[in-house]
From TrEMBL:
Name of this protein: RNA polymerase sigma-70 factor, ECF subfamily
Keywords, comma-separated and alphabetical: Sigma factor, Transcription, Transcription regulation
Species the sequence originates in: Maribacter ulvicola
PANTHER family: RNA POLYMERASE ECF-TYPE SIGMA FACTO (PTHR43133), RNA POLYMERASE SIGMA FACTOR (PTHR43133:SF51)
InterPro entries named in the record: RNA_pol_sigma-70-like, RNA_pol_sigma-70_dom, RNA_pol_sigma70_r2, RNA_pol_sigma70_r4_t2, RNA_pol_sigma_r2, RNA_pol_sigma_r3/r4-like, WH-like_DNA-bd_sf
Family membership noted in the UniProt record: Belongs to the sigma-70 factor family. ECF subfamily.
Origin organism lineage: Bacteria, Pseudomonadati, Bacteroidota, Flavobacteriia, Flavobacteriales
Every RNA polymerase sigma factor 70 region 4 type domain range: 131-177
Amino acid sequence: MNNIDTLEETIIKAKQGKQIAFSRLLDMFWNDVYGFQLKRTENENDSEDITIQAFSKAFDKINTYNDSYVFKTWLIAISKNIHIDLVRKRKRSLLDTRSNSDAITSALDATPSMEDQLIQEQNLADLLRDIKKLKPHYQAVINLRYFNELSYADIAAQLNEPINSVKVKLLRAKKLLSEIIKERK
């Protein structure tokens, strides 16, 4: 991909599964989505988490993008829906555990996702075999994060990629790995 690709050309390349197109879209729109969420949540961690989830969901569903809409608006709408779901989930958790302050504290902590739980339940030999089914760039990020226990920043430095790209790539790798595990069961 060259630097003169238009947004439309970049989206077409993303729909074809070209990783560099995803990276370019992330670079182009990260600040817009993150800034929108920062205004809504007034919390940097929540804003970053929601933005990562929004890009992951958008990239997973890139083929459903309709070019009669503005791409940035589509991304922000996805992030807005993720934020709404998060707020509802937290309210439900707080209402369910109102009498127990420890439970309230733990409800606000980042709990493992369904993908994380599924991955943790696997036998190591089975898990390693399943990881080998992923594309090499997903294998690398999974290995660095979970087997070498590197931080996002360390992974970004080792792969020479922006930290936000690493976070999105890891989220996508976990989703793909969980799908492989589910198919095997």
